[in-house]
Design goal:
The protein is mainly α and about 120 residues long. It has six helices and no strands. Helix 1 packs antiparallel against helix 2.
């Protein structure tokens, strides 16, 4: 599985936080912080927008690093991603992300037995 597929199935390669980090793009950090603040009803600053990817080595966005319940669960269970978990279809945590997002579902399920 691609290292840049997050535990929840999101593609970190497409994430604006990762792109801003790779390119040291402060304008993109500002734009991302504003969008994420509005989307999450939280105070997110441009200085917080630094991440190399959920499963990749390097810096992580604070929420992803220590607060994301999906990341914590997968790491505790020792899976590569939620796609390897037998409870994926009934898991309330990951299904909040999967929802109607076919790309995320495909990212998880297309490689779900790769590491069994």
């Amino acid at each position: 599985m691609k290292e840049l597929i997050a535990y929840c199935g999101l593609d970190c390669e497409k994430c604006e936080a990762r792109i801003a980090t790779l390119n040291n793009d402060d304008a993109l950090r500002e734009k991302t912080a504003k969008a994420w603040s509005e989307m999450n009803n939280a105070d997110i600053t441009a200085e917080m927008i630094n991440c190399m990817g959920c499963r990749a080595n390097g810096v992580k966005f604070a929420y992803c690093q220590s607060m994301c319940p999906i990341r914590q669960c997968v790491m505790e269970k020792g899976y590569e991603t939620c796609g390897n978990c037998p409870d994926i279809e009934i898991c309330l945590k990951v299904n909040m992300v999967i929802g109607n997002n076919e790309e995320v579902r495909n990212n998880l399920l297309s490689h779900s037995h790769e590491f069994d």
